[in-house]
Amino acid sequence: MAAKNILVTGGTGYIGSHTVLQLLQEGFRVVAVDSLYNSSEVAINRVAELAGDAKKNLVFEQVDLRDREALNKVFASTKFDAVIHFAGLKAVGESVQRPLLYYNNNLIGTITLLEVMAAHGCKNFIFSSSATVYGWPKQVPCTEEFPLSAANVYGRTKLIIEDMCRDIHKSDSDWNIIFLRYFNPVGAHPSGEIGEDPRGIPNNLMPFVQQVAVGRRPALTVYGSDYSTKDGTGVRDYIHILDLADGHLAALKKLFQDKSIGCEVYNLGTGKGTSVLEMVAAFEKASGKKIPLIMADRRPGDAEIVYASTEKAEQELNWRAKYGIEEMCRDQWNWASKNPYGYEAAESES
């Protein structure tokens, strides 16, 4: 089988960079595009180093998806077999404060991408969706059939894009589309060379914990310790970034094998819930560092317990998560201890 060409948008981001590496290792040719608005080119350079000989199959272009002319050039230079679409802004709090920024970037960027794809005859699409489209589920585990609702602007952009894709497929059955709804990605590549590097104050638990562990922040604030969970703290489904990247490869294989997939959705999680305090304890064990905690009130809109039903992905994609929270914390700490300031130090040296 001739090597297939895959376009990865948001290729220098956290999930994008890990997925690009897995694609290269599996023999795909990859063109990664990213605006570098909130990520670093250092990430893709490190991916190239980790890929060894396969780095010859990697091209990086700095492109904002809203720039139709630049995007057209990318499609004119390579005939793509599929697109994996990660690019988008993703901080929940910021999305509520700056809704137009999020609608402009996430929606207009995606519309332009889909229009350019159609114009160039590429109609295989994997979309990076999110468990936020379940809103605050009334029960767990979340199955793909749950009613959809978004509790914030970021989640709403994901939901609108899912709806757009369903409408596109209804209008033109040549499109093959898979939505992957992620739960809580954590961890890093075992080399410690690539990992999560949020700009500004981290939005998610683990980057915050890691910044406390390396001394960048004094303490972790835990929002809500009076939930009716085993230790009073919120429960989430954490998934190792390598398992998540692997889920994209499984989805890609499904797209290529099943030409009539239409528009399908899969949860990517472990199917297990872990509380905030359990996660902190596992990280303390992996790092040997004490994480000081400040207990605060619940945040408005935070759900008590959210975790995935993963049966559909296991049956139809032949995929399941392999790693537990010990490996997630071990790899996260390895990345954090080697790169306490993320890619910043490498950027200032270059």
Strand order, sheet with most strands: 3-2-1-4-5-6-11
Structural class: alpha/beta
| Termini separation | 39 Å
Radius of gyration: 19 Å
* Low-pLDDT windows of residues: none
Order of helices and strands: EHEHEHEHHEHEEHEEEHEEHEHHH
The averaged pLDDT comes out at 95
Q: Count of DSSP E strands?
A: 13
* Helix segment tally: 12
Overall description:
This protein has about 350 residues and is α/β, with parallel strands linked by helices. About 40% of the residues lie in helices and about 15% in strands. The chain is built from twelve helices and 13 strands. The chain has helices spanning about 15-25, 40-50, 70-75, 90-95, 100-120, 155-170, 205-215, 240-255, 275-285, 310-315, 325-340, 345-350, and strands at about 5-10, 30-35, 60, 80-85, 125-130, 175-180, 185, 220-225, 235, 240, 265-270, 275, 295. A seven-stranded parallel sheet has the order 3-2-1-4-5-6-11, sandwiched between helices. Strand 1, helix 1 (about 15-25) and strand 2 (about 30-35) form a beta-alpha-beta unit. Helix 1 (about 15-25) packs parallel to helix 2. The radius of gyration is 19 Å and the shape is globular. The model has no long low-confidence stretch (mean pLDDT about 95).
